[in-house]
What we know:
The complex is a heterodimer of chains A (209) and B (160). With 209 residues, chain A is α/β, with parallel strands linked by helices. Chain A has helices at residues 25-34, 86-92, 110-126, 151-158, 176-197; strands spanning 3-5, 10-18, 45-48, 54-67, 70-78, 98-104, 136-141, 165-167. With 160 residues, chain B is an alpha+beta fold. Chain B has one domain (10-158): Beta-Lactamase. Chain B is globular and about 50 Å long. Chains A and B meet through strand 1, strand 2, strand 4, strand 5 and helix 2 of A and strand 1, helix 1, helix 2 and helix 4 of B. Guanosine-5'-diphosphate binds at residues 19, 21-27, 54, 78, 81, 141-142, 144-145, 169-171 of chain A.
Amino acid sequence: MPFINLVAREISCKIVYYGPGLGGKTTNIEHISARTKPESRGQLIKLATEAERTLFFDFLPLDLGEVRGFKTRFHLYTTPGQVYYHASRKLILKGVDGCIFVADSQRARLDANEQSLEDMKEDLEDYGLAFDQLPLVVQYNKRDIPGALSVEELRSVVNPNGAPEFEAVARLGVGVFETLKSVARLVFLELKKEQNTGPSSEPDGGSGR
Amino acid sequence: MLSPTTVIREEDFRRIQAAVDKLVRSAYAKVVFLVDKAGQLIAAGGDVDHLDTTSLASLTAGNIAATGGIAKLLRENEFTTQFHEGKNAHIHIQVVYNRVILVVIFDAKSSLGLVRLRVRKTSEELGQVFEQLSQRPLSPRDGAPFGELTDEDIDNLFND
Ligand SMILES: Nc1nc2c(ncn2[C@@H]2O[C@H](COP(=O)(O)OP(=O)(O)O)[C@@H](O)[C@H]2O)c(=O)[nH]1
Ligand SMILES: [Mg+2]
């Protein structure tokens, strides 16, 4: 549910990077933070363990500029990957508007990818969100790794619905912005649909608005 | 189904901002802000110029989400109130209408008792606003431009 302030003419959306541990979620938003002008972003907050593993979430607020006179804010969150952080991972999905699933292209991580996708579906359903209605983009990360799985193999496991997909080397920034832009597009299309199909008659509050 | 967009309209915004500003004064607070549970800042009042309110909003929502998770494990409904005591600044956090989070930052000029009392009143006022607000989803009559977005509009977002 994007958040729209008609007075300040601002819209904020929440984007969550989900995926198996060590797949490159944090690396994605670190790259975005490093490549965005300081005036267009807030602080990158990382709630991490001493070993740099995401403990709760990473957070990066971004200003994307204006769309038709509305300031557009995107709040990027990453989830912690390890299996035992399931409870906190799920919390991050609350109020999500769009999701990026970061898959790890290493053969040894195929099961972890699959498991993570299953978790995501379950978590979304627990919030009453249908997996196939949420704006979702799949990123095949670590394409630089020797012996990486083919995109076809990965697709059959983590992208059965044919969501928009991107190959990436997050460590070098390859594919990172393309992925984000793609999910932003989906979120806006969803919003467009919502506005156009919104209830034509509001309950009459008599507020004289 | 995705849950509907939260839309703050002029009258809502005025009422929310007025309630926040009033609480700053009545509780002798340094800062008051209101955040939705997904971490979006809704309104802020008081001495906010030197504060990173965006980060505060996100961390507060994370905090409430985490304690909410703990509550669930303990079969509590939710911990609707939290208080953190610092050396100079203290922070009081209250969930309102199960949907937004009211945060008061105060120092020795005020007291926990006073803050609690004033927050209770403000929560009632804000609860009414958000109850009404949740019955009015985004509609074509709002005059927001999102219904006519083109691919070009979206492309332009990242191009600067
Ligand atoms: N080879 C390679 N390593 C990557 C790539 N992206 C991230 N990494 C590395 O993978 C490790 C885990 O990344 P991180 O972003 O912390 O994963 P997260 O658990 O999903 O947040 C780090 O050592 C990164 O440097 C990539 O595209 N290629
Ligand atoms: Mg991480």
